[in-house]
Design goal:
14% strand, alpha+beta, 3 strands, three-stranded antiparallel sheet
Length: 113
């Protein structure tokens, strides 16, 4: 989608991977819990799509979809465009699904034109 969310994904993935503390030191068992750890600690990355599968917006939400107000939520459209004018209803529905609001002022990281 030509936006900056991919760099956040890579950064958060490496952060989660590096924070993993294996339960066993034996090399064959060392990474048994790694995947579950990454799923628990990494933010959720979601793409809103239309009925034909066309990408409309990408969201980075708090780990496990639990917002405490301190996480920097990011929602952007293709090319880092503001998705709210066209996709505001879908973004609102996404917020309702997770149980917290996703206002433009908090979630769109770039200044509006």
């Amino acid at each position: 989608m030509r936006h900056a969310v991919e760099k956040y994904f890579r950064r958060e993935y490496e952060k989660a991977r590096n924070s993993y503390q294996p339960a066993h030191s034996a090399s064959i068992e060392r990474d048994i819990g790694l995947r579950a750890h990454i799923q628990r600690t990494m933010p959720l990355f979601l793409t809103l799509r239309d009925h034909e599968g066309e990408r409309l917006a990408t969201a980075m939400l708090p780990p496990q979809g639990r917002d405490d107000g301190s996480f920097s939520i990011i929602i952007v459209g293709p090319g880092n465009a503001d998705p709210y004018p066209a996709e505001g209803d879908a973004i609102e529905a996404l917020g309702k699904h997770f149980g917290f609001a996703l206002p433009r002022e908090r979630c769109y990281p770039y200044k509006r034109n």
